[in-house]
Amino acid sequence: MKILYISISGNTRSFVQRLKTYAFDKYNVPIEVKEIHENSVFEDETAPFFTFVPTYLDGGNGVDNGDTEILTETMREYLEYHGNYRYCLGVVGSGNKNFNHQYCLTAKQYAQKFDFPFLADYELRGTQEDLERVYTIMKQTISE
């Protein structure tokens, strides 16, 4: 199992690292993780992976008057690079539910743009129940 993620505040990094530990400790399943950031060297992906992305937007409300993705553009560019998105099995989004319609909007936009499924969401750093739920969804997605 492989996860590509971007983390701005550390919440996504924390969740992915805890998910990696959970999968190995409970199921003996190793998860390879790769953090994408503005200094990343873009590479061609050749195997399936999941994408984890937080939501950072500027302007608009994301529903009827637009929005602009900020801070996470490097992940979008990485997915676009040589068609890496073709290997993505789905996206998991995070955010703050206080932002209503913008909650996980970046992940939902990626799913629409790249035509892969929006698999799950969690708020901020996520809970233990979120870890278990997201892991189950990932395992089911691989089994399909």
UniProtKB/TrEMBL annotation:
* Matching Pfam families: Flavodoxin_NdrI (PF07972)
Q: Which Gene3D superfamilies match?
A: 3.40.50.360
User: Which top-level group of life is the source organism from?
Assistant: Bacteria
Against InterPro entries, the record matches this protein to: Flavoprotein-like_sf (IPR029039), RNR_NrdI (IPR004465)
Q: Return the protein name.
A: Class Ib ribonucleoside-diphosphate reductase assembly flavoprotein NrdI
Source organism phylogeny: Bacteria, Bacillati, Bacillota, Bacilli, Lactobacillales
